[in-house]
Write a structure and sequence with these properties.
The protein is an all-beta fold and about 400 residues long. About 0% of the residues lie in helices and about 50% in strands. The chain contains one helix and 31 strands. The strands form seven sheets. The chain has a six-stranded antiparallel β-sheet with strand order 6-7-2-31-30-29. Strands 1-24-23-22-21 form a five-stranded mixed β-sheet, with no helix packed on it. A hairpin with a 5-residue loop joins strand 18 and strand 19. The longest helix has 8 residues. The radius of gyration is 20 Å and the shape is globular.
Length: about 400
């Protein structure tokens, strides 16, 4: 059931959809996470990470962006100063789309950031490289985020690799927050009434780095984790003393990303350094339903928030890829290529401000060149008709 896209030797012009890079933003630090705000749907966050070789310390930033359109467009070439004194150059290119993206703020922090997740209320969760999880108030998304509370692991050399909320579908639920660490641990935190972070439980989930933790949004007691030990695991908070509810070694390298489908209760995808995306039916986890070979390590996967068949992937040296997943079959729809093949496609997320996939957008970021990209995607047939 394996599909090898490298064997198809498709170019972007031969795929059903075409991705155009409209705008590129440059940061001071290596960019590794892009996350869209599900409540303030015209806003997103770019997070960065940098190891300071001279001191061995880690620094990073949270950078806010807002969609502007029509007469509001203001993504012209400019530069900004951060508190660390480096330049950020914003370069504007083609404006075929009606929507542009503009930077609203930059907040430099004294820790590197590996993951961020918005709640469906007004909070931003940050998994930091200095062994802590930080909660920010982002109720005013164009303003500087305000730190509310922090949770620390016992050793600041341990990195918090990822985090997720368990109340994406049930917003009335008192939320739990799941965190994975470079020590292989998984942490269950509860958000208190005063928006503090209270540790409920910590357990050893993996033998090596636990790269990813993800909630089952349809069951707030169930979560999934993936690690550098090549294992995909499932957990039930009500029965942790029994160990994992499953432990699979289907991937042949570290499991980097997991995403539960937001509208299909039993659909799950996983990605790995082994260059494969696996599609799972959570009712029977003995083997995947299908898989696709991407020709690059799969670091992030994002289901589209409104159209259930579209899947966005950040595939390191194989760029950003858009798939249609219909009737359990993968079809490569578009490949968004970076200019320099040496840069890693690392973070990506769909624009939440749209309801149609006939003409849509997503944001992405690449690691070594410190860039964030703003993409416009539309049908190649439409492009051909416009050029006639």
């Amino acid at each position: 059931f394996l599909i090898d896209i490298s064997a198809q030797t498709m170019t972007s012009s031969h795929l059903p959809l075409h991705s155009s890079n409209l705008t590129t933003f440059t940061s001071n630090f290596t960019s590794d996470v892009v996350e869209w705000n599900p409540r303030q749907k015209d806003h997103c966050i770019l997070a960065t990470y940098q190891l300071q070789k001279e001191t061995g310390s880690r620094v990073g930033s949270l950078e806010g962006f807002k969609i502007v359109g029509g007469d509001e467009k203001d993504c012209h070439s400019s530069s900004e100063k951060s508190s660390l004194g480096e330049q950020r150059n914003i370069e504007s290119s083609d404006t075929e789309s009606k929507l542009s993206l503009s930077r609203t703020h930059t907040t430099d922090v004294d820790f590197g950031i590996f993951d961020v997740k918005f709640s469906f209320h007004q909070d931003l969760l940050v998994a930091a490289g200095s062994g802590k999880t930080v909660l920010y108030d982002v109720s005013s998304p164009s303003a500087t985020p305000k730190a509310l509370s922090e949770h620390f692991v016992e050793n600041e050399q341990i990195m918090c690799c990822s985090a997720d909320w368990n109340n994406r579908l049930d917003k009335s639920l008192q939320p739990h927050i799941f965190v994975s660490t470079s020590k292989g641990e998984l942490i269950d935190l509860q958000l208190t009434s005063d928006r503090g972070l209270e540790e409920v439980n910590t357990w050893q989930g993996h033998d090596y780095e636990a790269w990813i933790v993800a909630s089952n949004y349809f069951n707030p007691n169930v979560l999934y984790s993936g690690g550098d030990d090549m294992k995909l695991k499932g957990w039930d908070l009500r029965a942790l003393e029994m160990g994992s509810i499953f432990s699979l070694s289907t991937h042949e390298a570290g499991v980097c990303c997991i995403h539960k489908h937001p509208s299909q209760e039993h659909t799950l995808v996983t990605g790995s350094y082994d260059n494969y995306i696996y599609l799972w039916d959570t009712r029977s986890m003995r083997r995947p339903v299908n898989s696709v070979f991407t020709d690059g390590g799969v670091w992030r996967l994002k289901w589209h928030p409104t159209d259930p068949k579209y899947l966005l992937s950040a595939c390191m040296r194989a760029f950003f890829q858009v798939y249609s997943v219909d009737n359990d079959q993968f079809e490569l729809m578009s490949m968004a290529e970076l200019e320099d093949g040496e840069n890693l496609a690392y973070g990506c997320d769909w624009c939440y401000a749209e309801d149609s996939l006939t003409d849509f957008h997503f944001a992405s970021c690449s690691f070594y060149n410190r860039e964030m990209q703003w993409w416009h995607v539309k049908s190649n047939d439409t492009i051909s008709a416009e050029n006639e």
